[in-house]
């Protein structure tokens, strides 16, 4: 079968040669205090701090070596392509043009059936990582087993290429999640399949970098190298990810909880009590909480980082290796906590690539209060249809 990404990107039907082009002017200097960009007739002014710089500038400054800069150059390129694909008017054509319903795409046990854009995003990331020459193995939500890429690649990448893809048809935000480890040299002697898996099952405490990319009204690349979490916004006029949220600090308390509360009657007593309490303004923070739930993990987490509160999914649904670990890393680096309702996520040793668990991410004080209710992890998981 033709590669989906090839089909999607090379087709003249999908990308008509005739596109509107606006006169785009590149800002004179990103270092200036006022950055002005022209989008056609619209002039957009943005205040840029003196620290204004791009994602690649910042990766370079982390002093973690040129290999990581090269990897991020490829990763950001992949995410820009995914951003373009999810916003394309031709997404709905994918179902008709490729045979995704055949058995070759049936996922292994414990995995959900992929959507066409999951597969396209997966291919975009895989091909970028392959051409970087810096990645030994990629473990993805979309593959049953990790893919061994290059014996001498210094890094291991775990990823959910397109989280929240069930929202695509309604143009609701989606995101890419990634985590990066060093390749474990002591496993080099093992057969490829075995070392690919063991490299991918590293504990979250060993992450050297992690992040997410939010595809929403803005495309935001949030990353941590273990010294704070920083977010960059895609400037579509230049193609750069520009530093917009340096050293994010999650508020120690928010007034927002984010959960699919249609599952209320499947929740354990502790979680019901916690939500009942904060809804009524009877918790440690004496104000009534509000609910926000996009049902798109990256978007729910991004809002939580900015406004505070807790983003949670109390059932065994989200994956430890490529969802919970990278996002917990980001949250911890922003001063918050990531747990399964009891244990710190980053300290849980993965035993399976697609291992699922309850996930709670958020403000330190809110997380402590939630966990004090003890029993917050949902035991039953009846297989909800939507
Ligand atoms: O159905 P629930 O329990 O509300 O789960 C919703 C969550 O599942 C996700 O869609 C991830 O699941 P998928 O990877 O199967 O799409 C998250 O983006 C979202 O937060």
UniProtKB/TrEMBL annotation:
Keywords (A to Z) from UniProt: Carbohydrate metabolism, Hydrolase
Domain (Fructose-1-6-bisphosphatase class 1 C-terminal): give its ranges: 250-373
Q: Name one Pfam family in it.
A: FBPase
Q: From the UniProt record, list the reaction(s) this protein catalyses.
A: beta-D-fructose 1,6-bisphosphate + H2O = beta-D-fructose 6-phosphate + phosphate
Kindly state one GO CC term assigned in the UniProt record: cytosol
Which GO MF terms does the UniProt record name?
fructose 1,6-bisphosphate 1-phosphatase activity
Kindly give the CDD domains that the UniProt entry links to this protein: FBPase
At the top of the EC hierarchy, this enzyme's class is hydrolase
Q: Say which domain of life the source belongs to.
A: Eukaryota
What positions does the domain Fructose-1-6-bisphosphatase class I N-terminal occupy? 63-246
Q: Any one Gene Ontology biological process term?
A: sucrose biosynthetic process
Concerning its family, UniProt says:
Belongs to the FBPase class 1 family.
Please identify the protein, giving its name as recorded.
fructose-bisphosphatase
Organism, per UniProt? Protea cynaroides
